[in-house]
Amino acid sequence: MLSGLRQARRRTLEALAGLTEEQLEGQVRLPQGPADVRYCLLSLAERDDGRRVALAALYAALDWRPAEAARILALAAEVHGQLCALLLGVPPADLDRAPGPDDWALREVLAHVEQTGQRYLLHTAYAVERLSSAAELPLRIPAERLPPTSPQVRPDEPLSAILERMVALHDRLFDELSGLGEEDLAAPTIWTTWQVDVRFRLYRFAAHARQHLVHAAKVLNAVGFRQSEAQMILGQAESARGRLEGMLIGLPQATARRAPSGGLPSVQALLEDGAHDEEATVDTILRATSTTQ
After folding, report:
1. What's the CATH number of domain 66-250, 1.20.120.450, 2.40.50.100, 3.30.450.40, 1.10.1760.20?
2. Helix H or strand E encompassing 195
């Protein structure tokens, strides 16, 4: 359901992240009237904002509401969008530049975020497994079933591949955990030395990612990386996209394909239109900037 939007966004970032401030001043003619490239770029986030409002209306018309687990996990999708925003434009060399001899480089920070997400998923699934197990399972998952806590990096792997793998992990955890019910959310589990429940652990997906979003920002600031204006604007689009994707967590495919009464589109049609709209925006910008590239 999201593949079209994601493909359009990959093209957007590849085509437009290198725009200069001079190119942002370029003029375009829109159906509403004249504007500049900067406005077109800023409109990407604005249009996803509009899609979120439209989704809320569609859900009401379809009589569907995400479960509590899905609403909690939507926070993780939002923070992931913020992380993607922060990382826009980071050159390969800055992935492996540590601020100091005892500091992690950005690659290590991202590896830690990914591995901790995997650990959290396994901890949470195990806690739910204990509820239906005929055997008496220990409260804490056996350590051998977990990935290591220290960052296991893949040297020379490009940032795009790291982010694609993180998206795949998010999709997996959303698929596996968004349908948890009230009894599942109350299942006991362990976080560090605390005895908590699955509901607490679901909130930790966003909380831990947010902690290392700040960590990654500190590393990039220390090594001297600065985003261009175009990258900052596209970062706003990535943040808005994370919030939009969060609203889709737990949505059944059958519900997404069903158009409510009253002439409203289906959710799937709304997302397909969004992909086409973004592709058209990119084409407009590329035509306007082709003479100044």
Report:
1. 1.20.120.450
2. strand 194-197
